Amino acid sequence: MNVQFKKGVLEICVLALASREDRYGYELAVKISEKFELAVGSIYPLLNRLTQEGYFSTYLRESSEGPPRKYYRLTPEGAAYMRHLVLEWHDFTRAVNEIIEEGIR
Amino acid sequence: MGELNRLLTIVPEHQRAEWLYDYELHFRMAAENGIPEEQAAAELGDPRLIAKELLLGYRVHQAEDNSTVVSVSRAVFATVGLGFFNLVFVLGPFIAVLGVLIALWAVSGALLLVAAACIWEGYRGEMFSLPQGFSLAAVSCGLGLLSGAGTLSLSRGFFSMTLKYLRFNTRLVRGGRA
Question: Per the structure, how many domains does chain B have?
Fold first, then answer.
């Protein structure tokens, strides 16, 4: 898939995945790369930035195997930000689809 | 992993540990899923680039909490590290405006010095009397304080604009949402 597409939507994917339940970094990377191929390295700086901006809080939780995992939880500001992004996304994709349909009809 | 740690030594220990934990976990999870270490490392990308990105976010954040010439300059230099584009479009204007600000500070300082000199001249010299010296001193002192206050608010404004621009610029360079 086009790289330019993916860069823009990674943020919205991460926020949306974390809105239903708290996630850890690797889980997010795996979930997203199931749907489309992804530069895994870009996910951690993104999580870091969103945390610094107050959209995520983090905590450690023991796991049955291996070391404690670092979970990311969406803060109320993060949830509001996600809803804002999703609305924008819907408007944007609808507009693009309309243009495409007009163009290739 | 070692390289990333080494590149980030300027960052306080607890912050660094928190960043690196994500990457450590990534390697462990990858190992559990049967992905060899080399492949996991390749997936994550160049440690130098990761370090630069992390550092930039950190510097900008730090400078926003406490805007001084030093912290803002550090943020600017962290941005410059991300590419040539930034060398031209970030560092150039930054140094130019910084130069103007320094000149304005010098003007304010000079006016205050003039005030002191006027008093001294009125007291000891022949050029003008003591009352004349004092009134000239009052005028130049007033001008000095005024321009000092103006420069201070200009500097503050300039720093906060710089930081806003750096944030915007990083997203642009990374190709994220601008």
Answer: 1
**Per the CB < 8 Å rule, is A7 touching B176?**
yes
pLDDT tens digit sequence for B16-54? 777 778 888 888 888 877 877 777 777 777 777 777 777
Per-residue confidence (pLDDT) for residue B118, from 0 to 100: 84
Q: Which residues of B159-177 are buried (b: 16+ CB within 10 A; e: fewer)?
A: beebbebbbebbbebbebe
CB contact under 8 A, A41 and B45: yes
Yes or no: say if B44 and B53 are a contact pair by the CB < 8 Å rule: no
Structural domain of residue B120, as residue ranges?
Answer: 83-173
**How far is the first Cα of chain B from the last one, in angstroms, to the nearest whole number?**
30
A45 to B50: CB separation less than 8 angstroms, yes or no: yes
Q: What is the pTM of this model?
A: 0.62
Residue at B23 is within a domain: no
pLDDT of residue A16: 92
CA closest to A72 among chain B residues: B22
Residue (of B161, B17, B4) closest to B75 by Cα position = B161
